Amino acid sequence: MKRLLLGLLALSVCTGCSTSEKERESVEERAATVDGIITAARYRHHIEVLSSDAMEGRAPGSKGAKMARSYIIARLRECGIRPANGQRFEQRVPLRRVETEVHDVRVIGGATDRRLMFGPEFMGNSRKGPGRHVVDGELLFVGFGAQAPEYDWDDFKGVDCRGKILVMLVGDPPTEDRNLFGGPAMTYYGRWTYKYDKAEELGAAGCIVVHKTPWAGYGWAVVENSGRRPKMRVREDDPNRHMGLEGWVTWKVAEELVAGTGRSLDELASAAARRDFKPVPLGRRLHAELTTTSEPFEDKNVAGILPGSDPDVADEFLIFTAHYDHLGKGEGKPGDDVIYNGAVDNASGCAGLLTLAEAMSALPVKPRRSTMFLFVGSEEQGLLGSRYYTEHPLVPIKKTVANINIDGLNVWEPTRDLQVIGYGQSSLDDVLESVLAGRSRVTLPDLEPEKGLYYRSDHFNFARVGVPALYVKTGEVVPGRPQGWLKRIKDDWVKNRYHRPADELQPDWTCSGGAEDLRVFLRVALQVLNGYLPPFWSDTSEFKDLR
Question: Average pLDDT, stretch 268-289?
Answer without folding.
Answer: 96
